[in-house]
Amino acid sequence: xxxxxxxxxxxxxxxxxxxxxxxxxxxxxxxxxxxxxxxxxxxxxxxxxxxxxxxxxxxxxxxxxxxxxxxxxxxxxxxxxxxxxxxxxxxxxxxxxxxxxxxxxxxxxxxxxxxxxxxxxxxxxxxxxxxxxxxxxxxxxxxxxxxxxxxxxxxxxxxxxxxxxxxxxxxxxxxxxxxx
Length: 180
Prior knowledge:
This protein is 66% helix and 0% strand. By secondary structure, the protein is mostly helical.
C-alpha cells in the first residue's frame, strides 16, 4: 500500500498536493515547498525534506502551523481557523485525536491542570503549546509543558520547531506510506 500512496501523492497536481500537505501542517510555505520538491523516492525522503523546510521557517510561518493544532488535553476541532467542518479540518482533527490518545479524558485532575497550564503558556508565549504527544500520557505532557514555561521566548520557538518536525514526520508517514 505504501508504494501506491507515494505514487498517488507524487502524481497529484501541485494545488492538490498542497491541500493534502495542509492536512499534515497548516504552514502554507511548508506545504508549497513540500509540493514543489516532489517527486519523493520514499516517505523517509519526504520527511527529510520536511525537516529541512521546517528548520528554515520564520516565526510567522511557525505560528501559521499552530493554527490547526488543538490545545493539549482539549478535543480536536476546537482550534484552528480551518475548524473541524472542512474535510481537511476533520482529517487534521483525527490525526490530533490519535496523537493525543494517551491523554485520559476521564482524568479530570490532569485535564484541569493541563487547561490551566495551557493558558499560562499562552499568556507567556502568545501561542499554543505544541508538543509531539504520540505515545505520551497527559501527566507526561503536563510535566513537559511546565518545564517549557521556563524557556525564553526565542528558545521556545526553537522547541516548537523541533516538535513540529516530529509531528510532521508522523503525519507524512501516514499520508505517503499509508501506515496507521
